[in-house]
Design brief:
The N terminus is likely disordered. It contains five helices and 27 strands. It has a six-stranded mixed β-barrel. The chain is globular and about 60 Å long. 45% of the residues are buried. The chain is mainly β. Keywords: Aspartyl protease, Disulfide bond, Hydrolase, Protease, Secreted, Signal. One of its GO terms (biological process) is proteolysis. InterPro entries: Aspartic_peptidase_A1, Aspartic_peptidase_AS, Aspartic_peptidase_N, PEPTIDASE_A1, Peptidase_aspartic_dom_sf.
Amino acid sequence: MRKALSEKNMLNSFLKEHAYRVSPISSRSSNLTIHPLRNIMNVSILGGMCSAAPPGALMLYVGNITIGTPPQEFQVVFDTGSSDLWVPSIFCNSPACYTYAIFNHLKSSTFRPTRRIFTIKYSSGWIKGAVAYDTVWIGDLVSIDQAFGLSVLADGFEGMPFDGILGLNYPNISVSGAIPIFDNLKNQGAISEPVFAFYLNKNKRGGSVVMFGGVDHRYYKGELNWVPLIQAGDWRVHMDSISMKKKVIACSGGCEALLYTGTSLIQGPSSLVDDIHKLIGTTPQGSKHYVSCLTINTLPSIVFTINSINYPVPARAYILKSPVRAHADWSNSWSPSTETWILGDVFLRRYFSVFDRGNDRIGLAQAV
């Protein structure tokens, strides 16, 4: 049993011990790396009753990375909504760390500590720790002397079936001040093109991928539709409207949309999400909203129009079932000052997505 330490003592123990250009996107690039992901929290779509979900990880796509020499393996969320990479430290004394893979810096010959402390707050919780450097591998991609976080305190991650998070947003989003791993891969010449892409399998635990350095056209149908970012620095685009049966039901006059792979749900302002629940015909029970499973085949698609292109999400995608009951994948817990929506995995597993850092744009196409 690990000895309980105060927050200050845990951080001090860790620190004292270590005081020491525009271009087209190619398909099937010669330097393309395709890394497998798996859905470890998918809700069954068989049988049951149906409902509208509260915030929560109803689906979660993770992949393996290794850190250190010799390598230590971790299961992480590849998240376009953040920019920091972190895993638990051997000094982590929070209950959330007890079941996770723990990075042992004493076993890595390439480990390099710093005295920098960081705290990252997520919608589900927070972590606190120290910044360090080591070798990180994503499949056959290697980032030498990569800055990453070692958490010593965590809250809100108990029971989550992953070890850490690997952020894929812009450097200015980094809370720890570290250069993100994608930027290091680009700067070190590990990838030929500054792009990465996601294919999130809709029906199976396996088969999902994240690809670096190019795009494999076998994972989508038709052409990629390119959407410019509102500005470089976040995966945020302008959305024209949200509609149902050709009637605008939200985002009237335009709004902003964030495309975040680390978010399971579609999230938006509380009042607008409540309106959508009413249009779907849900019945609230506590924090959840339920519908009859018999209505799934008759409920209309919700259409997200982005850069004049319609992206429908059918009821079988936004209504999920479980052996007990099923629910609609919407969250109304997030209420920004301006109308902003987060299009999480409910949307992104319908559409293959390309994140183009070289041209500050996102490409979308129907996933196979």
